[in-house]
Amino acid sequence: MTRPPEPPQISLSLAPHGLDLDATLTSGQAFSWRRTADGRWRGWIDGRPCLVWRHDEVLRAVGPDLTHAAVSRYFGLDVPLRDIFASFPSDPWLEKAREFSPGLRVLRQDPWETLCNFICSALKQIVQIAQINADLRRMLGEPVAAPDLYAFPTPARLARATEAQLRECKLGFRARHLFVAARQVAQGEISLEKIEAMPTEEARETLLRLQGVGEKVANCVLLFAYGRMEAFPIDVWVERVLRQLYFKGSQRVKLARMDQFSRTHFGPNGGYAQQFLFHWMRNDPRAKAFARPAKKSLSR
After folding, report:
1. pTM for the predicted model, two decimal places
2. Which of 55, 75, 98, 123 is the most exposed place for a label (fewest CB within 10 A)?
């Protein structure tokens, strides 16, 4: 039996801003990537399984039907980072966050999978969300090219799942949210494709009509799937950063005030600033020293 030819390797320059694959793929944006024994990353781009790695100042990727444009878009290599950074305010905390991980990028992912990931994120840590993603693929996804690789289940497939199947994926109370949201999308009540062309406020309001979607989840989907850089998700980590570093630790400041502050202070590309702050606070012990431990469980 003739073995099919290996797909061609894609190479993309990372100059001038670089790309920190480890930071980007472990920063709470995407949950389907796994590091291989040789230090590369195996995951999915546009529903296609692939392998990516960095060699000097070049990003390399290989996978069936993978294109330069898809890889560039997924990793945000087509985003004018110079302009984004120039729009940031003069802010010593944000500078520290950028210095900690200058190669961090905001990804552009599939809207449906991103929506599901963040519906499942309530009171869950990153490793737990990744496990739910893997379980949903294994339980309900279609097998693809290699053994033990499964596509993320479609809205129609999730809408046909039983509550028992979803709970087996460790969804708990989120099972009902995910099932109803899948049905809303599968039946055309909400079109994720049409959201792409909507103004951001209209897109946010449309996402909020989905079961299990609040402001944080809507903003995560806007930022990590639709590339709306003005979207500023406030989870417990980011709330901790804002409260301790920008509001002097005041417990009286409400989320609505933080949201208003983030829009005006961080500007039109606040979502990128948010991701730097989130990753910095989670991973740099020096950053954690600036803020008192939160009483809540620090989930994504």
Report:
1. 0.93
2. 55
